[in-house]
Amino acid sequence: MSYVRLVNVTKRFGDVTAVNSLNFEIGKGECFSMLGPSGCGKTTTLRMVAGFEDLSDGEVWVGDRLLSSPKKNHYLPPEKRNFGMVFQAFAVWPHLSVYENVAFPLRIRKLPDSEIDQRTKEALKATNLLSAANESPDFLSGGGKQRVALARALAINPDVMLLDEPLSSLDPHLREEMRFEIKELQQKYGFSIIYVTHDQSEAMALSDRILVMKLGVVQQIDTPLNIYNHPANQFVFSFIGLSNFLKAIPQDGHVILPDQSEAVPMTLKPPDSLRDAALLSLASRPSEIDFTHMEDPAGLHGIVSRKAFLGEIIDYQIKVGDQVLRVQKGRRDPGPEPGAVCAIHFLRPFWYKEK
Ligand SMILES: Nc1ncnc2c1ncn2[C@@H]1O[C@H](COP(=O)(O)OP(=O)(O)OP(=O)(O)O)[C@@H](O)[C@H]1O
Ligand SMILES: [Mg+2]
Fold first, then answer.
1. pTM (2 decimals)?
2. Is the distance from CB of 17 to CB of 58 less than 8 angstroms?
């Protein structure tokens, strides 16, 4: 059931349309991520949901409460929205103790002292900060400061947690740990999360559903699995996971490579709907390509140009005409050395029309 609802939400800054007619609904207790490259409108969207930014058009709802609607001249200020927020540059105040940092939003809300104390302690406990309550956050590590920001957002007992790249300043190991902590807090308290990131693995690990955005326009909203397995378009394919795009020209029901006359084997046919395109992209994941010894007439011919050992996987570069493919294999499957000729098989090709 939908809880947070954005209807045709649009934000213009002068000539720039930062967010263009955005529609999505989030369920109670759902973790929903917004993913997209820098400047695609993620923070602007979050700020509109939070109430820090006016909408140019559209509506924001939570349950049956309208929060923002320029047409209806309606706007509820941030402190009345009951949203917890954590932003990229975790703004913890060094001149206040950890305890006072967390209590701050409750003092703003003018709650009774006993309630402030009880809620602050609970949030500190949930984030493992009770023992640091009287210290300055300056003495904490990056992860510790991040916990203070989370505790402060938790203390208000939020209906929705708005998280804007909350882990981007942490090292990779800590990031991974904090992801699970956020998830655990959500399961314990049942709030919904809107999580903004441009790190696709973070979005995949945390989210029930992901929205992929480009230049203020939604490209796809779906589960992590569906986004990965059934990307809506070439942009989504390229943004989630590693990708290869091999240019190919349709000819008589199959394809040839632009730089050579060699036909790509007949087993690889583009979909009928794309046969009339001038140029296609054959999209593939590095882990979904096989290559075998060259005496394999069914494969596309290539030459291994690089082989790098990355621990669990071996990463190959294979030249196909003047294009390059990246292929990844498990380390137990050693494969040919640079210079070797090979035949390539695409295990799960996707086709896109080149514009
Ligand atoms: N206050 C503002 N005035 C003018 N333009 C703005 C303002 N805030 C954002 N923009 C523009 O709106 C677009 C979206 O910006 P936004 O900060 O929402 O992107 P983002 O997806 O959060 O990017 P990043 O991943 O870099 O944080 C950009 O083109 C940006 O320059
Ligand atoms: Mg941003």
1. 0.88
2. no
